[in-house]
Amino acid sequence: MMDIWQTLLTRQEAITDRPILALFEDQMRADDFAVTTQHMRFDYAKTNIDRDTRADLLHLAEASGVAAKRDALFRGDKINDTEGRAVLHTALRNIDGGPVLVEGTDVMPEVRVTLSRMRKFARKIRTGKITDVVNIGIGGSDLGPAMAVAALAPYHDGPRCHFVSNVDGAHIADTLRGLDARSTLVIVASKTFTTIETMTNARTARAWMKDHGGDPKTQFAALSTAEDKTADFGIDPEQVFGFEDWVGGRYSVWGPIGLSLMIAIGPDGFDAFLRGAQTMDQHFCAADPLDNMPMMLALVGIWHNQFCGYATRAVLPYDQRMALLPAYLQQLEMESNGKSVMMDGSESPRHTGPVVWGAAGTNGQHAFYQLIHQGTRVIPCEFMVAANGHEADLTHHHHLLMANCLAQSEALMQGRSLAQARKLMEAKGLTGDELERQARHRVFAGNRPSCTLVYERLDPFTLGQIIALYEHRVFVEGVILGINSYDQWGVELGKELATSLQPVIEGTQDAEHKDGSTAALVDYLIRHRD
User: Fold this and answer.
1) Annotated catalytic residue 366
2) Given 335, 382, 471, 477, the catalytic residue
3) Could you tell me which residues come within 8 angstroms of residue 70 by beta carbon, excluding any fewer than 6 positions away?
4) CB contact at 8 A, 157 and 266
5) Which of 25, 103, 347, 366 is catalytic?
6) 46 catalytic per annotation
7) Radius of gyration over every alpha carbon of the chain, rounded to an integer in angstroms
8) DSSP 3-state assignment of 407?
9) Choice among 129, 210, 495, 513 that is catalytic
10) Is the pTM of this model over 0.90?
11) Residue 460 contacts residue 273 (beta carbons within 8 Å)
12) In sequence order, what E strands does 46-192 have?
């Protein structure tokens, strides 16, 4: 393994200054450095990966055992070995597939029963008096459904959906303001039904509903496996939908956590969403590595982060309805691969997951693209755009959107030389030192890598494909890095300390056991609160 890592590091050093544009002397590059699946094309030709580098990256994946670990994942093996769990979010969308075994038991019958119950409940809500749905969750219980509901707005034909996650009282107050408690359904999404932020918001929503004429007994549902706690909370067991511990929070939108999405777009739309993801699962399992979209997306990420040393990646969907996708992928990737310990407990010898960030285009162009184009750090960009929008009477908007998306990746690669900038300033009549000064401000270094995902239209099937694509990308990168992508111990310590700090903030305990900085901050907050 170390030999192939060193080979790739040597390759990177050798091509640092090579223009990406020079690689297009190969007339076949655009097609050879792209992967196409049903309704989608992933283009990674605008990177400095050449054929030899790609061959070595594929060798790295093979040497890391990606294929064998992929088979273990789909087989139901306990690949999350720090928690002793299988990782089977893929089973939730295996609606046309065969048995999936966990410790010799087929989990698919129970998955189908739960999905059938969800469909029945969603139809009841969609045809009843409910006008608004408030999903209360946090992390994976919020980001997934909130992102998907926003992305599929053209397919909404059910109640309006709202999402509350932050324990900041402003979030639930602003969300509930203006809603009719008599026609609002509240969905509480917490596997354990103990998540402090979620349960605090749930109790506030319950009190609001009681105070404003609603009926919490019939207008609350729970997405949880803690049936005793949901019963104590007063939720009808028929309106409780559970999921197993082999479904991680950030991978859970495919099951009960996606109930708000099913209510918004209907059971048929949700089935299309699942089938899109299932299609990507089948592609990931069957396609040869070179023609495997999750594999190649992952290897591009590994190349940029581990070998080129680019610490961040920008996700830039040119679709306003996908504005929440960067935040969703931020959790998916950074919580999964933000690790420093290998599977065997040893320290990782290299950096692991990158910082993931971004925004919807074209808004980002007027916010942070300045740094991407002319800043001192290289930031690989991942663009997304559909061939078709949903607004038939606004096609000129979509044409401009597509042009902007493709122009940005072209500009990142091509740049603008000092000689070109000088000609621009000469055309404006500048001469001498002022020409030189102004020209230098207009130089773009170029040679900055990007990849682009294009698809026909953002419909439920396609969104399912895209999310599953990125899930599998995270898996492949985690295998190559030798880490466990499916635990998240890093979120625990802060939660534990928050629990111990709450009575200090409330004034029932003193802060003498805290460090000086924390104690001083507590003192300031207590002295200045109303």
Assistant:
1) yes
2) 335
3) 284, 285, 475, 476, 479
4) yes
5) 366
6) no
7) 25
8) helix
9) 495
10) yes
11) yes
12) 101-102, 105-106, 132-136, 160-164, 184-189
